[in-house]
């Protein structure tokens, strides 16, 4: 809703967005109800999007407070060197083939050892957005450090982000665990970071990841329609993963106005998902559109709430890129 207002230069949704975010941030310590650092940063980035749309510095401060909290769970060079982390009760590995510096723990609990791409990608993106908003180089430095971890330690040779590495024993999630949101959120962060720094390392990595993400068979069919998270009977995290990729690609489109080929690719890819939604995965019921989480179809026979949510980023991004 905030992004739609931002793209259309509107304040139509300002009240409901602002009230909802302020309510959420007032309810739970560190903006996290269930004990997951990525959950906290989803809220923080929603607050940033709303700040960007409406200029409300209170919302920006919510995002900054969350960043300060999550920074306690980023593996520093000192942590890697000493083998200890102040908020964990086990010996950490400073290197798992490549350095673990910059990785972000998935959970704040003292015994959880997982560092993963979604928590780290969210931290990269939040840091880059805050650097862009404030001009504070500390945020830029944080974004670069964590972006380096994904690039060197948790990415495959096809430029797709991998999932999880254990900080305790270096065990990894299966290499087949390739999810849209891991690459999509990191792409979003790289689009901001590359512009902030002017560093071709980040812009080239972003371009390679955009190319890989829009062509891989890991989550889409030969027609280009994303097939991940297509459960029509039960909501699950995977249903919403794909919308994160679309949102990340949209940020690349916005920030690369001089690259016509890149923008055409992103517009075309977004429109493929939009046309699939409209032609294969939607039903008009008394003037209300129902969207299936299965974007390749079939069309739903009843309202599926998680299908509506997954469709929202496609609909909003399509407004922007077209």
Automatic annotation (TrEMBL):
Q: Among its keywords, does the record have GTP-binding?
A: no
Q: Does the keyword Hydrolase apply?
A: yes
Query: Which keywords accompany this UniProt record?
Result: Hydrolase
- Give GO BP annotations, semicolon-separated: carbohydrate metabolic process
Q: What's an example of a GO molecular-function annotation for this chain?
A: hydrolase activity
Q: What is this protein called?
A: Glycoside hydrolase family 76 protein
């Amino acid at each position: 809703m905030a992004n739609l207002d931002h793209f259309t230069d509107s304040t139509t949704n300002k009240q409901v967005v602002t009230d909802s975010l302020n309510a959420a941030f007032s309810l739970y310590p560190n903006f996290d109800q269930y004990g997951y650092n990525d959950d906290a940063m989803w809220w923080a980035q929603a607050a940033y999007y709303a700040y960007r749309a409406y200029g409300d510095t209170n919302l920006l401060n919510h995002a900054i407070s969350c960043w300060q909290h999550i920074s306690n769970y980023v593996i520093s060079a000192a942590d890697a060197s000493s083998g200890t982390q102040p908020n964990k009760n086990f010996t950490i590995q400073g290197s798992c083939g490549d350095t673990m510096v910059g990785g972000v723990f998935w959970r704040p609990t003292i015994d959880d050892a997982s560092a993963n791409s979604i928590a780290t990608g969210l931290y990269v993106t939040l840091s880059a957005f805050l650097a862009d908003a404030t001009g504070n180089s500390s945020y830029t430095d944080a974004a670069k450090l964590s972006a380096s971890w994904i690039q060197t330690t948790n990415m495959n040779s096809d430029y797709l982000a991998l999932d999880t590495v254990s900080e305790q024993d270096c065990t990894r999630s299966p290499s087949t665990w390739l999810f849209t949101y891991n690459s999509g959120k990191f792409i979003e962060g790289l689009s901001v970071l590359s512009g902030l720094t002017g560093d071709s390392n980040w812009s080239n990595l972003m371009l390679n990841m955009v190319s890989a993400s829009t062509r891989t068979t890991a989550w889409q069919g030969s027609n280009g329609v994303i097939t991940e998270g297509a459960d029509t009977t039960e909501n699950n995290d995977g249903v919403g993963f794909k919308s994160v990729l679309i949102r990340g690609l949209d940020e690349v489109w916005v920030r690369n106005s001089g690259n016509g080929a890149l923008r055409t690719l992103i517009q075309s890819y977004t429109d493929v998902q939009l046309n699939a939604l409209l032609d294969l995965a939607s039903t008009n019921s008394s003037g209300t559109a129902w969207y299936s989480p299965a974007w390749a179809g079939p069309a739903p026979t009843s309202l599926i709430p998680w299908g509506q949510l997954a469709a929202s980023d496609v609909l909003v991004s399509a407004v922007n890129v077209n």
